[in-house]
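Q: Structure for this?
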Amino acid sequence: QTSVSVAGVIDTYVGSLKYSGDSGRTSVVNSSGMTTSWIGFKGSEDLGNGLNANFKLTSFFRSDTGASGRFNEGETLFSRDANVGLSGSFGAVSLGRDLAPNFLPSTLFNPFGGSFKLSPLMLHMDVPRFNASGWTNSVAGDTGWSNEIIYTTPNFAGLKANLHYQFGEVAGNTGKNNVGANLLYFHGPLGLTAYYQRVQVNNPLEVSPNNVQPTTNIPLPSGMMAARQSAWFVGGSYDLTIAKLFATYDQTSHDIDLKDQTVQLGASIPVGAGAILASWANTKREGAAIGASLKRNTASLGYDYNVSKRTDLYAVYMYDKITDQTVGNSMALGIRHRF
Amino acid sequence: QTSVSVAGVIDTYVGSLKYSGDSGRTSVVNSSGMTTSWIGFKGSEDLGNGLNANFKLTSFFRSDTGASGRFNEGETLFSRDANVGLSGSFGAVSLGRDLAPNFLPSTLFNPFGGSFKLSPLMLHMDVPRFNASGWTNSVAGDTGWSNEIIYTTPNFAGLKANLHYQFGEVAGNTGKNNVGANLLYFHGPLGLTAYYQRVQVNNPLEVSPNNVQPTTNIPLPSGMMAARQSAWFVGGSYDLTIAKLFATYDQTSHDIDLKDQTVQLGASIPVGAGAILASWANTKREGAAIGASLKRNTASLGYDYNVSKRTDLYAVYMYDKITDQTVGNSMALGIRHRF
Amino acid sequence: QTSVSVAGVIDTYVGSLKYSGDSGRTSVVNSSGMTTSWIGFKGSEDLGNGLNANFKLTSFFRSDTGASGRFNEGETLFSRDANVGLSGSFGAVSLGRDLAPNFLPSTLFNPFGGSFKLSPLMLHMDVPRFNASGWTNSVAGDTGWSNEIIYTTPNFAGLKANLHYQFGEVAGNTGKNNVGANLLYFHGPLGLTAYYQRVQVNNPLEVSPNNVQPTTNIPLPSGMMAARQSAWFVGGSYDLTIAKLFATYDQTSHDIDLKDQTVQLGASIPVGAGAILASWANTKREGAAIGASLKRNTASLGYDYNVSKRTDLYAVYMYDKITDQTVGNSMALGIRHRF
C-alpha cells in the first residue's frame, strides 16, 4: 500500500548557551535549533468529486537524546499532530490534536520561523524559562490543541481563515473550552495575518483546573492565578527581493490584572546559497499580578546556508535581557535535515 | 527494502457522552469510536517450501490527544502487537505480545465489532467504568497477552483453532500463568465460535500479584480479591442477506463467589452504501463478593456509511443502565480511516 | 519520497533462566536473545561531491511485551540512535545520541556479538544483576551516549578510528563529560581492535550527579561512590575457515579503589547452514570499595541456524558463577528476524 508516508525534520546544534537570568554558561549538543525536530506519518485518500480523507500522526522528539516530545512532562506520543478529517471545495475539517490559532501567524511572520530556541518572538510568546528570571510564556494554551475541531475556509484570492475550537471535556461544564481564529493573506510580495484566541484550557499539561495563564508551569510571584487569557496578534511581511521584512504586534490580557505587549521586527536577506536572518522582539509585561512591570529584549542574528533543498547549516548569535536579570548571550551552530 | 509495511486505523468522533453511573454529560472529541486507533509495522518473509517468517509491531493510540496506548497507565509502546513467528502447512506459531483467546470470538460475533466505546458486548466484557457504578469488566486479563505463545491450526474446511499460553514469569513458580483456546468456523452464511480461558495473570497492568479479576483497577466493594477467573463463550452469526444476525452467550466464574453471565443479540442491515447496526447486551452479576446482584442493560443503534473501502462515517446512539445507577445515553458522530 | 527507510530486528526466545545469584528458575518468553530488538528510521541524502547528509532514529524495544527501551527507567523513545551528520572524503561527523566507544570493539570481537542476554563478555561488561549477587556492569556509561559528537576517520587500508565526546551539559561546569576513542582493523582473516574511554557521565540514567561507576543502579556494599572510570580494551580475531577465533582483554579503574579485569575467549565454527558458537569470560573484581575480591565465570555454548539471510533460529546453554553465589545455568531457544 502507498497510503501512508513517513516524513520529518531532524535539527541538532552545538551551542554555548546563556539566557537572561541564567547564572552560568552551558556547552551543549541540543535539539531543534531552527525547527522543532519531528517525525511522523501522513496520508491522503482521494474519495472522488474533489473530496479527500486526510490524516497526520506526528511526534516531536529531541535529537540530542532521542527523548519523545519537546519536554519531559505532559507530552503525548503524537505530540505534534494526531488528526483526521475531510477536505474539498467546502474547505477542510480536522478532528483531534492539531495547530492552535497562534501557530501559523507567529511562525510565518518572523525570519526565524518556528524556532523555539533562537527566534526572539517565539521565545517571548511560547517558552517559559526555569531560571532566576521566572519568565513565563506570554501566550497561553500551547501552539497545538488536543480534542480540537478546525474548520479551514477555501482560499479566496490569497485569503484563508482557520476557525479553532477545543473541547475542555469537563463533565457537566461545556463552558470551559478554547476558541480562536486566524487569517492569512498572501499576494505577490505582500503577506498579512491576524489571530485572536481565548484560552481557558492549558495545553498540553494543565497544572491545576483553574490555572491557565501566562504560566504553564511557573507560578506568578503574587500568587494570583489566571483562569482565562485573551490574545490578539497582527503581522505583515513584504518581500523587496534584496530583503524580506517582517513586523508583528501582539497583546494578551487576563481575568486578573496582567498584560503583555510584544513588538517584533525582522529581516531575511538572501546572500549566496543562504540568507542572513535578523530579528528583534520587545515585550512589556505589567499588572498587579507581577508587581513592578518588566521588559524583555531579545535579538538574534544568523546565517542559514542551504547545502541542498533538504539540508541546511546555520550559525546564530542571540542576545537576551530581562529587567533586573543577568544578560544572556548564546551561540549555536547546527544542521537541519528534512526527510 | 520492501520487507516492512506501515498500516493502521485512525478513528475519531465528536460525542455527547453519559454512561450509566455518570452524574453529568460530557462533550468531547474522542478516539476510537468504532475501532481502537492503532498504527504499526508488519512484515512477512518467504522462506521457501510454504514457510514464512512474520512479525507485527503495532501500537494503540488516542487520536484526540496523540497519547500512546488505550489508557494512561501500564501500556507498552507496542501495546497491540509485538510478535514474531513462523507459519506454514503446520499452521502458525507466534511469540510475544498478541491476541488473548477472548478477542476474535467477541469482536467477530457482534455488529459493532471491536468498538470498546459503543459495542454493548465489548463494554460489558472489557471496559471498567471509573464512575459511581464502579463497573468492572466481566472478562479478566485484557484482550491482548504479553509473554505469550500462540499455536494456530491450519484451516480445516472453515474451522480454525488457536491455542494460547501466557507465561507468568514468576521466579520459582511456573503455576501462575494464563491459558486458553478458541474455535472459529465460517461456512457460507453461517459462523460459529467458542472460547475458554483461565486467567491468573492480569494484563497489561497487574495492581497486585494476587488480584486478577474482574477488577482491573476497581476494588470489589466486599474487599474480596480474585486470583483466578475461568471464562467460556459461545457465539453464532447467520447472514440472511437482508440482515446479518448475531447471538453470543458467555459466563465467568472465580475462586471467590462471583459470577457474570452475558447475553448479546445483534443485527447488521445493509442500507445504501452502509449498514444499520443494532446490538443489545445484558449482564447479570452475582455472588457474595459484590453483595446484592446487579444487572446491566446496554443497547446501541447506529448507521455506518462507507465513503470508500478505507473510510467510513458513523452515527451511533447508545442507551446504558446498571441497577441503582443513573441512566446513560450517548451520541457519537465519527470518521474512521484505514491506511 | 524515498528519503527514509524503516528497518529493525525482532528477536524473541523461550527460555528457562537462572543467573548466578538467582534463588529460583524462571520460565519466560523474553526479548533480545541474540540482538537487542530495535526498529527505526534511516536516511541518507547525496549532496554532491561525495558529501552525504545522514540520519538515524532508532528505538530499542522488548519483543515479549512491546515495551519501549531495554529497561523500564531512563530510556528515551529513540534509545538506540538519534543522530544526524555529514560524511564524505574527510570521514564522518555525527551529532546526538549514538554509539559509545566501547560498543563496536566488544560486540565485533566475541562470537555472540551484541547479545546482552547470552554473551559472557557483554554480560560482564554491561549488564547489572538485581539479585543476591548485586553484580554491577564492569564498564560504566552505557553502550550509547547522548549529547555526543563522533568523528570517524576514513578507512586507511582496513584501519578506522572513532573519536567520541559527550557533553555533560552542566551549567558553568564544562569539566564533567565523557571522552573516548576506538580503533578497528580488518585485513583478510585478521581483525584487531582497541578502545579507551573515560566516563564521568552515566547513561542513560544518572542516579546521582556524583555516582558514575561501576554501579548503574546497584550501590557498592562499602557505600563508596565512583565519580570517574577509565576503561581500556584490546581484542583480536582470526578466521581459520574451519573456525573463527576471538580473544579480548579489558581493564577498568576508578577514582576510588576498585578495579575490574576481564578476559574473554571464543570461537565460531561453521556447521551446516549455521555455526556453533562458544565463548567464555572471566572477570576479576577487586579493591577496598567491594571488600573481598570476586570472580565471575560465564560460558555459553550454542548453535545458530540461518533459515535465510534475514531469519535465524538459535539454541544456547549458558553457565554462570560468581564467587559465593548460587550457580546459574540457563537455556534459550529463539528466533531472530531482520527487516
